[in-house]
Specification:
alpha/beta; 3 helices; 10 strands; 4 iron, 4 sulfur cluster binding; Hypothetical Protein Aq_1857, Chain: A; ATAP_core_dom; single chain; seven-stranded mixed β-sheet; iron ion binding
Length: 133
């Protein structure tokens, strides 16, 4: 196989693509001490907490929070030292800019939650959906 044909075949291997992580500007997403501590306890070296905003939910938009091992080209990250903790795509960050991410344990469940979203007008009682101002 020629070098040119080999190089062309690499473009079909997305795992070989390298992206430099862009940092979320300070203050655009705030992690509480409890959130950082819980992430340190549960994240494997390649995992990050992904926060997404999707249409739907009882108030209009819905927070989707899950663990993820991928970082896409349009993702931004929150770092603690050298460790990447949280990943948010650019569109979702536009809906949660200035919010606080907390880890909360109560009688019903233990979960990460987006709190104090300055762009939200109202939310549902469970805290997973919101309406924009």
């Amino acid at each position: 196989m020629s070098l040119g044909r080999f190089a062309n075949s690499l473009r079909f291997l997305p795992s070989l693509r390298l992206y430099s992580s862009r940092l979320i500007p300070q203050g655009d997403l705030i992690l509480t001490k409890a959130a950082k501590q819980r992430l340190d306890e549960i994240l494997s070296p390649e995992e990050k907490l992904r926060i997404e905003v999707e249409g739907g939910g009882c108030a209009g938009f819905e927070y989707k929070i899950r663990l993820d091992t991928t970082v896409a080209p349009d993702d931004l990250v929150v770092k603690d030292g050298e460790k990447e903790l949280v990943v948010v795509d650019e569109m979702s960050l536009g809906y949660i800019r200035g919010s606080t991410v907390d880890y909360v344990e109560d009688l019903m469940k233990a979960s990460f939650r987006v709190l104090a979203n300055p762009l939200a007008e109202k939310g549902c009682s469970c805290g997973t959906s919101f309406a924009m101002k």
